[in-house]
Amino acid sequence: MAETGKGVTAGKLAINVQKRLTRAQEKVLQKLGKADETRDVAFEEMVSNFNKQMNEGTKLQKDLKAYLTAVKTMHDASRRLQDCLADMYEPEWFGKEEMDALVEDTDTLWLDYHQNLTDKSVTCMDTYLAQFPDIKARIAKRDRKMVDFDSARHHFSSLQKGKKKDEAKIAKAEEELGRAQKIFEELNVELQDELPVLWDNRVAIYVNTFQGLAGHQERFHREMSKLSQNLNDIMTKLEEQRQQKKDGTAAAKTGDGAKSEQANHSESASSPPKSAVTNGSDGELPPGFLYKVKAIHDYAATDGDELELKMGDMVLALAFDNPDEQDDGWLMGVKESHWVQNKDISAKGVFPENFTQKV
Fold first, then answer.
1. Cβ(205)–Cβ(124) under 8 Å?
2. What is the rounded CA–CA span in Å between residue 150 and residue 177?
């Protein structure tokens, strides 16, 4: 049994070697112009498209993975930065709990973004490219079988044209030609059906990949923008807290007597010193006056009841006639310059609180 197995293996090896020699001889004859070669221009164009498609897909896959690596690097950097802020944020500072929650939400957002890119874009490209090696191997096999077919065809033709015809050899050659032709044509038909479909499918793959990528990016940046605004609001409130403590300390040191000192301290804890508020307004305050703020950003009014601000404008914050009308994060006020000049509040309007800071 062992000898038989060895014999079979050796026989197959000899057949394979013979096939390679025959193909090599056939290719040499074709290159020398001594044997015609089966050509299929349409199929050659399909193969050219296949190679282009495979190269483009491989490059896209590589660049997608590089982008994913960059996202992970940014996530790691963001996590370290946020953890650093959370660690140094003291418990008595404004918004400590909100800050801790914001750090956690930011980390979760990065994780979801990375996972969505992996599942929807990178994995999709991996699946798409997984089919190329098998098709590439069958194209190579089809080319080998085409050479076998050409070789069998030329051998059969030469026997037919010979002066001394050996009918047995001719019959055997014809049988080998039929077998070679059948194998070649089966592979050829399969690939001619598959390659155009694969070529057309690339459009859908690119659309799905980049639509998914764009959608994940849009959602990520939208949610990250909200978190960034929350962080900015917390930092603004923290600076206000620091400024109020600073003003309170200064008022306590300059007060005359214990009673005056107590009054100044109480006033500074709830609002800036009155002298700072009334500066430039001859000591007269508009009805419902609360405190004075300074615009730290430009704000373009989008409605008739809003107050347009330029950075540096001083605004006298006023109480709402109806407290129920006040929205969170919005104040009512009139520009100090208007009040000083006209002594009326007809030009009052609402404005976003986080575009200003108390003075």
1. yes
2. 9
**Per-residue confidence of the chain (359 residues) as pLDDT tens digits?**
444 454 557 666 666 666 666 666 666 666 645 555 667 889 999 999 999 999 999 999 999 999 999 999 999 999 999 999 999 999 999 999 999 999 999 999 999 999 999 988 888 899 999 999 999 999 999 988 888 888 888 888 888 887 777 888 889 988 998 999 999 899 999 999 999 999 999 999 999 999 999 999 999 999 999 999 999 999 999 999 888 888 877 777 666 454 555 544 444 444 444 433 444 444 688 998 999 999 999 989 888 889 999 999 999 999 998 888 888 889 999 999 999 998 888 889 999 999 999 98
Segments of the chain assigned E as strands: 289-295, 314-318, 330-335, 349-352, 356-358
Looking at this protein, which amino acid is placed at residue 55?
A: N
pTM attached to this predicted model? 0.57
Please give the Cα distance from 174 to 197 (Å, whole number): 35
- Report in angstroms the alpha-carbon separations of 237 from 54, 318, 356: 55, 20, 11
Instruction: State phi, psi for 306 to the nearest 5 degrees.
Output: -100, 155
Q: What are phi and psi of 323, to 5 degrees?
A: -55, -25
In whole angstroms, give the CA distance from residue 333 to residue 290.
9
Q: Could you tell me the end-to-end alpha-carbon distance of the chain, in angstroms, rounded to an integer?
A: 101
36-40-46-50 Cα dihedral, nearest 10 degrees: -20
